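So, is this right?
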Amino acid sequence: MSESKTPETSEMPKYPNVKIAVKNFGPIAEAAIDLQPLTVFVGPSNTGKTYFSTLIYALDGVFTGHSKFPGRFKRLGIHGFKDLLNQNWDAIRSILKKLNTSDQSIKFSDLPPEIRASLESDLKDPESTANELKRCFDLNSITELIRLKNGQRSEMNVSLEVRRENQRLWNFNIESCGSNFAVRGSVNEDLMIYDKDSLISHSHKELDIDDLFFRVAIELDRHREKRFYLPAARSGIMQSHRVIASSLVERATRGGLTPLEVPTFSGIVADFMQQLILYKESEEPDKEMQHLADVLESDVLAGQILMKPTPSGYPEFLYRPQETGEEVRLTRAASMVSELAPVVLFLRSGIRPGDMLIIEEPEAHLHPGAQTEIALTLAGLVRAGVRVVITTHSDWLLKEIANLIRIGDLKRRGVQQLKKMESIHWLLPEEVGTWWFQKDGIVKHIPFDPTEGIEPKDYEDVAYKLYDRSVNLQDLLEKAG
């Protein structure tokens, strides 16, 4: 893989600590998962890996990211936040007076009750939460998310807690039983809204409402992030998104003339399609993301992914192999190309440091050698500050992730004998969290072992069974000969 400059170990990206716990959620009996810079879900099919990934995506949408502030802070926007300050001018004036006569900062508890209630409104709004869950999971009712046990649906619980270091920033809880759906949450009273020492300029003029607004707006804007979900069906969608979009538009214009029953997509598929349909090349791409895209094209795809506008307005995506230079449609390229094309496109014009990227089975349709290359891309994303979640069945991918963790540990210990390529791509043990999903059981954390690496128990079981069977069959062949 080509060379790139990456941060030193002391410069690892700063993420809020996010913990999501569920009970009786879909096929999952119980789970409590800490999201890491790279979070890996493994385990048999139909055990809830996609369910949990979709939940992460949905909650990210409800709160506009898993960051220092709940979504309401960010969705107010600059003008909305200023209006909120002006509507509570008397209380804000007393806060300004305190700031100008002391070295104190503003905590959440210092804000007027009306502002606190407004900023906490997302944490107490069951309708918006239910709507996003139903949209992402393509459901008619939240009841469908409650786990069935012995033909009965019991109570479902979902909790989200966001922390920084040892301080809770905010938390959120869902409880659903039958048709009852309730949410509750709160922002930590001690959450720092405005840190005078770090945000105010060194000039000694008194702070006024415009300065306060400007400084807080900067702080809020630091925590904007986007979410991206690459579903397992991405290959087929990449090959047919223009046909699907054209068909939906055509059917929409005929709705009053013919009986119409249009099947719906899940929110993650609909969002993915929308991102493809509205795709435009960025005029100012992020250099690190662009480099990762270029390396993925040269080292894995052996060709370029191109975007061309069409008269219909929908972009057409093409593949240009290095060997021939001939542009071909994705339907004529290897399945690997359709699988990785959206990764390249989103890296080139979409994903930025601080964003969330969820990929289902990044190893799909890839040769084992290419699967290990994907691990390097994931490490590059982490180094660049992207929070990544993947589901996987690939032992090759897990083994290479384990190698990258070993390299990171060696770098931290100051070992100098690493090869040039090994000094470029690495992860730290605390940056990776691997979770094993099992049928009707509790989701368990798989700790990294310096010797064994990342080894799910069921992988070992399969390996032992295959070995025993091979030995028995070889024995029979020898006796038959």
